[in-house]
Design goal:
The chain is an alpha/beta fold and 248 residues long. It is 46% helix and 12% strand. A six-stranded parallel β-sheet has the order 2-1-3-4-5-6, with helices on both faces. Strand 5, helix 8 and strand 6 form a beta-alpha-beta unit. The longest helix has 26 residues.
Length: 248
């Protein structure tokens, strides 16, 4: 059966952040779906809740799993949510997980500081969008630069989502994950703060640090991230072939 890829975006952005990866996968003949979480993208008018966010991931995964083994991929908030989902008490039908830019526990002083900075930026003229655009211009290649804004920015949802993430028990969840797992971080990503903890909790996981890259690793180095997708797909294919061989 063909590997199915499910992509989960980060905070403020939407499914459009994955456009480079979607094109890459579709050209390779790999089925892919990029979801919009509540309060983001096409669902901007909805309220964000952890329950609905996790339900969105679960619905996409279970639908994809009817067609083949699932490689689940999350970035930033999406990475935290996918870790919580895969490491939940009930094991979902996920064959492997790529968690990008999310090796930080979403609580305590770190989260409080992040929310304070986000609120300060939100009070700038134009809600700080001019600053966001300048940062993207300085760091993101031209071909992927429009992708983060294409589905709109979920500015009204950001603080609500950040507060909700504090309820996740990531330490317990990560320790439960037994499937192939990759942590992918940019060299200068601020969310590497608990990287060593995450790798201790999941000793079988592979850590990939992308040089000269910050938090937006999927857009800053799309070719490198697509290579990680190839690795994940090849791993799932090999495991699927082994399972088929055991059954025959």
């Amino acid at each position: 059966m063909t590997v199915q890829v499910v992509l989960v975006h980060g905070i403020r952005t939407s499914a459009t952040m994955w456009r480079s990866q979607v094109v890459f996968l579709e050209e390779a003949g790999i089925p892919v779906v990029a979801v919009d979480l509540p309060g983001h993208g096409t669902r901007m008018a909805e309220d964000f809740t952890l329950h609905e966010a996790l339900h969105t991931i679960d619905a996409a995964v279970r639908d994809a799993a009817t067609r083949g083994p699932v490689l689940l991929v999350g970035h930033s908030m999406g990475g935290l949510l996918t870790l919580a989902y895969v490491g939940g008490a009930q094991k979902p039908p996920v064959a492997a997980l790529i968690a990008a830019s999310c090796t930080a526990l979403p609580h305590g002083a770190g989260l409080a500081a992040y929310r304070m900075i986000a609120r300060a930026v939100d009070h700038l003229p134009d809600r700080g969008l001019w600053l966001t655009e300048r940062i993207l211009e300085a760091t993101i290649p031209l071909e992927t630069r429009p992708d983060f804004a294409a589905g709109g920015y979920a500015l009204d949802t950001q603080d609500i989502a950040l507060a909700a993430l504090s309820a996740l028990d990531l330490a317990t969840a990560v320790a439960r994950i037994e499937i192939p797992l990759w942590f992918v971080n940019g060299q200068y990503d601020q969310l590497r703060i608990n990287e060593s903890l995450f790798t201790r909790l999941a000793p079988h996981a592979e850590l990939i640090v992308v040089p000269r890259t910050s938090h937006l690793v999927t857009a800053m180095r799309p070719t490198v991230f697509n290579a990680v997708l190839r690795l994940g797909i090849a791993t799932v294919e090999a495991l699927s072939d082994e399972a088929d061989a055991r059954e025959t």
